[in-house]
Amino acid sequence: MPHSRKPHLDTLAIALLLACCMFWGFQQVLVKATVAEVAPVFQAFVRFALATVAVTAWCLWRGVRLSMAAEPAGAARAGLLAGALFAGEFACIYLGLQYTTASRLTVFLYASPFWVALLLPRFIPGERLQGWQWLGLAAAFVGVGLALGDGLLGPANAALPQAWLGDLLGLAAGLMWALTTVVIRTTPLARVAPAKQLLYQVGVSAVVLPALSLGLGEPWVWQFSTFAWGSLLVQALVGAFVSYLAWMWMLAHYPATKISVFVFLTPVFALLFGAWWLGEPVTTGLVAALVLVAAGIVLVNRRPAAA
């Protein structure tokens, strides 16, 4: 049965979007707080191993076929590629949080919509930017430039001399997120059930990340504190399972352009949670960068009025 789509966001959609963005902002702070006890890539591996079990159980309960043979031709290859990009994205996020603040990394990560705006029109001509959207793209890249400059030369550099490395890893994570979106939108994977798309991403990550963790020489210590186990469970079950499924459900029922405007709230929440919990510095350059990136997202998602 086809999904019934609503032309506008209702109270349920707005509440879910606010909850997701708030949690995603909090999640970066939670990961950074846990890095002191659980090595970053190993932490990501445990998270996605738990999420793989949860998503598989969900697919079985909902009757989503797990066999690759039941998919359109080429969907499995695209799914594995999307999974590899997803794993790379989160490896960069978890490693980057060793060097920079959660709020800074989130600003770079959420530059992803602009990578999509640059890359997707090469595959789908109807996605080309028009009018104010180009101004939004320019504003966002100026914001990213300001944030990078703050990490290299500004106050952030004095507090975190290697912040620039974490910033670049955050930028790379955003690019991989965008490439994952392009793969899903432009290949037969688009015709696969959203839960199965998510299973490819968390499942491949659960296979790739432990090899990367061992290659980096990270210690595999399973005797975590109650806080660390709680953090991993929240990251896996709320972050990689519930919030992602909620996001996919909203994409199936509401206009994607109106939903995506809410994404800019995530760096705001990361900034607030990082300052409150971890005492991360809030610099003028970072705030200016956040405002420019937020304004850019709104403009890029603005559609010209119908003639």
User: How would you spell out the order of helices and strands?
Assistant: HHHHHHHHHHHHH
Strand fraction: under 5%
Shape category: globular
Rg is 19 Å
Question: For this entry, what is the oligomeric state of its chains?
Answer: single chain
Mean of pLDDT: 83
Helix content: over 70%
For the terminal residues, how far apart are their CA atoms?
33 Å
Secondary structure tally: strands: 0
Main β-sheet description: none
Structural category is mainly alpha
Uncertain segments are: none
Counted by DSSP, the helix tally is: 13
Query: In the residues, how many domains can be counted?
Result: 1
Summary of the model, kept short:
This protein has 307 residues and is mainly α. It is built from 13 helices and no strands.
